[in-house]
Amino acid sequence: MCPKCRVPLTQNPMQAGPHGLHPCAHCAKLIDRDADICPFCGYHVRRARARRRILAIAAVVVVVLGGGTFGLVRAGGVAGLGDWIARMTATDPIVPTIPQAPLAEREQPVFAMPEPDLTPVAEPARAAPTAPVVVPPLVVRYATGWANIRASRGTDSTAIGVLRPGDTVRVATPIGGWWAVWRDGVRVGFVAADLLRTTPIPPDSLPARP
Q1: For residue 69, what pLDDT is reported?
Q2: Chain-centre distance of CA 164, in angstroms?
Q3: First to last CA, the chain
Q4: Is 9 contained in some domain?
């Protein structure tokens, strides 16, 4: 319609200018391609067309500069780019082919034998002889009742064995009221001195064994 009198107008492509009609980018009405302003909505067609052209040119420039910058960084800067161009434009030198003599006439390689290692080998250190275990004089004693064999002298020590009434043991000289019990040349523990006697217990006084 007419923008002034609001009279509907017939949009006939055959009645348009030499470049035909195209839709307005703002109101989508068909207007002449050569029009500067849309007669329906007042949109500045030429200004928008120039803005789109500038944006397209700027996008192309950004893409070109970005690709060039990326290639320059990959090439190692300006110096690296120059080296890359030199490598791409350089030609391989022509190396003359030298005929070689047959294998039988060639000089056979001489293999050098390795020098023998004459470094004296150090003898392994010998272990120091261990001192023999000195077993003190032992005497035979008999358990008067049930007695604990402890790991050290004292009732607070851990019990590592038990003597039954009448058991025979070999002990050394008592120290601090405790006998050192030995078996097969090895000290196995300690028993309180008052739990051992010098004479065996009569068989009829021993408890029955299971």
Answers
A1: 73
A2: 62
A3: 129
A4: no
147 found inside a domain: yes
pTM of the model: 0.36
Task: Read off the CATH number of the domain in which 190 is found.
Answer: 2.30.30.40
Q: What is the dihedral of CA 146, 152, 158, 162, to 10 degrees?
A: -20
pLDDT digits (tens, 9 = 90+) for 108-132: 566 566 676 666 666 677 776 676 6
Structural domain count, the chain: 1
Residue 173: inside a domain, yes or no?
yes
- Mean local confidence (pLDDT), 6-25: 63
Residue 27: per-residue pLDDT: 84
| Secondary structure, 3-state, 156-202 | CCCEEEEECCCCEEEECCCECCEEEEEECCEEEEEEEHHHEECCCCC
Radius of gyration of the CA atoms of the chain, in A: 58
- Asked, for residue 162, whether it belongs to a domain, the answer is yes
Residue 152 structural domain: 139-205
